[in-house]
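Feature request, filed as a ticket because there's no other form

It would be nice if the structure record came with a short human-readable summary line next to the tokens. Right now we just get the raw output. Example of a typical job, pasted below so the devs can see what we mean:
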Amino acid sequence: MNPRNPPSTLSLSLVAGIVLQLAPLTPLHSWTGALPDGSELRVDPSTHRAMRVDGDRARPLWDGVHRLEDGSIVIIRGGTAVPTTEMLRTWEGGVATVDELEGRPCEQLERRVCGHDNACRATAACLSARSLLNSEREAQRRAPFGAGARPATEFAKQCEAALTDAEFPPCASASAGPSPCRALVERVCGAADRCAASPACPPARQLLTQESEERAASARPDALTPSGAQCQEALGNPFFKPCEGVTSNE
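Raw output as currently delivered:
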């Protein structure tokens, strides 16, 4: 008997190896989205290959910007989709956001509307968000012993609803660092919205809104978010052409 490998250690190693071999791999599910014409956009989780599916027919989706039925957009480049937040949420193991406040809606709401640097502390939305957060914390302090560090309260549901309420917009702080989506908007919409009527301007603004929301809820306001990555890709997409008279260095 080898003293360096007692029977218990060998047995555990053998069992662990068998379990790993027999354990099935969790399949990744394709992300799907509805296109305005009634067909379906399907994105493979491994290759990010984008296909338009209409009944039994599937064909590659052309490169460019595609608006979905719900108003969101998907950028296709080289036949593959630039992953969006919703895609990452669908694919198991994907990191959908850089939010460290998941499951803490009142704290998330306060950060979203007041800003990392309190740039929006004087707004009505910020004052309301902080009132909800303070109420939640007071209710948690009064919770029975053993309820946990952050027991659920009635205020959590109010904060969850406020996260999707237009009266609680994200704070757009200039101190958040370089913004790929802001650069995209400036490029395609132009100074003083000179090219606001161009087809590329509304999608660019939508991406900027999404990026602002993701940054508002993130641990690092200067972190590259999923929407920011989309904007970086969009800067090289012909659909997002510069506003006439606007150079790429503006």
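Something like this underneath would help us a lot:
The chain is about 40% helix and 10% strand.
The radius of gyration is 23 Å.
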